[in-house]
Structures are given as C-alpha cells and as structure tokens.
Amino acid sequence: MRSVRGQTRMRGSEAEDEKMKMPQISQSSARRRAVGVAAIAAVAAVAAIAAQAGQRHPVSGRVIAEVMGYEGAAWLDRPEREREEEPSKALAVLDVRPGQIVADVGAGSGYYTVRLAQRVGASGQVFATDIQPQMLTLLRQRVARERLTQVEVVQATATESGLPQGQLDLILMVDVYHELARPQAVLRQLRAALKPDGRLVLIEFRKESAWVPIREEHKMSVKESRMELEAESYRFDRVIDVLPWQHILVFRR
Fold first, then answer.
1. What pLDDT does 8 receive?
2. 70-252: what CATH class?
3. Is the pTM of this model over 0.70?
4. Which of 133, 145, 181, 188 could form a disulfide with 52 if both were Cys (CB 3.0 to 4.6 A apart)?
5. Contacts of 251 by beta carbon, 8 Å cutoff, 6+ apart
C-alpha cells in the first residue's frame, strides 16, 4: 500500500492532422502530471524514512526500525521464504474467506497481496498499500501480470493509510508495523478502516527468540505489541505461534 480540452471549421486533411495532435498533447501533459505526482510521493517517502532513524516509540520505548527500501524487494520474493516463514500456514490459520474485504498494508512487491487475492476470490477485494512509489510500481506490474482484478493498489504515506473507512474485515501487516515512522497516527487510521469487529493482524519476528536470524530492531515482542496497540484502543484477541520465526498477533477494533 496513482494511482483536455476549439471549434474552428477546417478542410478534411487539416482536421485529421489536428485530431492526431490533440491526444498526443493530452497524453504528454498527463504523463508530466503523473511523473510529478510520483516524484512528490517519492520525496515524501524518503523524508519519512530518514526522519524515523533512531526514534523510540513513546509508549513502549522500543527503537523504531528503518524501512527496508525497494532495493530489498528480491528478498521478499526469495524462493526459500515459504520454507523459512510458512506464509501459507499463516493465511490458513487466519481463515481468510471468499468475499471478504482485506488490506495488505506495507505490501511491498505483493508477495502476500497475491495470496490474499487468491483467498478472497473474485467476489472479494484486496487493498494493497505502500509508501514507496518504487514498490508500488513492482506491485502494479505483478497485479497486472497475474490479472488480479480484485486488487486495488494504494499510495499511502507515513500518516495516511489511504483505506476506506469502516469497510475492512481484515488488515494484515507482515513485518511492517515495527518500521512505521508514525505508528500511533497509522493505528488510528487503520482502526477507522475496520468494520466493528474487524481484525488487525501483525506478523512480526519474535523478539523473545534470540536465535531468530533478524536484527533486534526488526523484531517485536508480544508485550511491546500489546502495549502499543492497546494504548490506541485495540482489543487484544490472541497470539498464534505456529510459525518458525514469527508471532501472529491478532487485535480487534
């Protein structure tokens, strides 16, 4: 988680020439606008990433990790990810069903987006958000390649989720929450997007397990997660520890 306008009578050949020119001018203008919007989004994303370095969460005191840049997209799609993290098992225990409306927040290159789309089917919908325009480009390419018409790609910011209010059954964040530069602002946005009994699920590397091969600031403990989310009025539902390296932390609106 980007997304024109004479009226002069002319001879036939002149009119045809003008028709050929008008769309080209219009398309060129649209392209320039699109590039401008993308550039602004890219600058905002970089600024947000840079601003969070070394910050601590005001409730738990944990160090907020730096965002993994789009250069790391290949790691998200590594072939051994299923063996190491068992994402299929994670989605199975979350019981994502056909027809549901869900969000993949911090979707990156779309690894989980595709799998969520398969589970909600054509009758459901997936909002896939990210703050990095380069990640969104990769995501759009993947969605188009796999013809996932139920997926809507959304440009988010450090404080704005871009999600519709009160419509989501499930919001999933996989190895993302610990990198949020403004976690409290984002949590408020996400809570507003959930249905009354909707779920916010964090999948995070276990801080309680020192042997998990991830840097410490990229891990979360159950205690930290509960402190931070309950401070924003989320109800803790349960922790599901069926994955090799990660907690599945389930909260409700």
1. 30
2. alpha beta
3. yes
4. 181
5. 199, 200, 201, 202, 229, 234, 235, 236, 237
